[in-house]
Design goal:
Helix 1 runs antiparallel to helix 2, helix 1 runs parallel beside helix 3 and helix 2 packs antiparallel against helix 3. This protein is about 75% helix and about 0% strand. The protein is built from three helices and no strands. By secondary structure, the protein is mostly helical.
Length: about 100
């Protein structure tokens, strides 16, 4: 006769996973803003701000794993800081070439 044991399911961090997904979409919007259309920054920056807020909420959850929240926090801050700077440099270089 075998003994059945119950194992707890791994907890998930829905806020961290959502923040990571928003960061990914925001990163695609930043790349689009740099390469194709500067107006994509109007979509990218609110997405990255929402990702920042959700990642902070995910970090405050006590029982959830924090890996996705930390990754989303780091990437959203880096992308939000680098997007306008990179976009400006690309525009300046474009003006210099004309």
């Amino acid at each position: 006769m075998s003994v059945m044991t119950y194992t707890q399911p791994r907890p998930r961090n829905a806020f961290g996973n959502t923040a990571l997904a928003l960061t990914f979409v925001g990163g695609l919007a930043v790349a689009t803003a740099i390469l194709l259309s500067p107006s994509a920054l109007y979509l990218a920056l609110p997405l990255l701000a929402a990702s920042l807020v959700l990642s902070i909420v995910g970090l405050t959850r006590s029982s959830a794993p924090k890996t996705a929240s930390i990754a989303a926090l780091v990437f959203s801050v880096v992308l939000a800081a680098a997007a306008p700077v990179t976009w400006g440099v690309v525009n300046i270089l474009t003006l210099i070439q004309r």
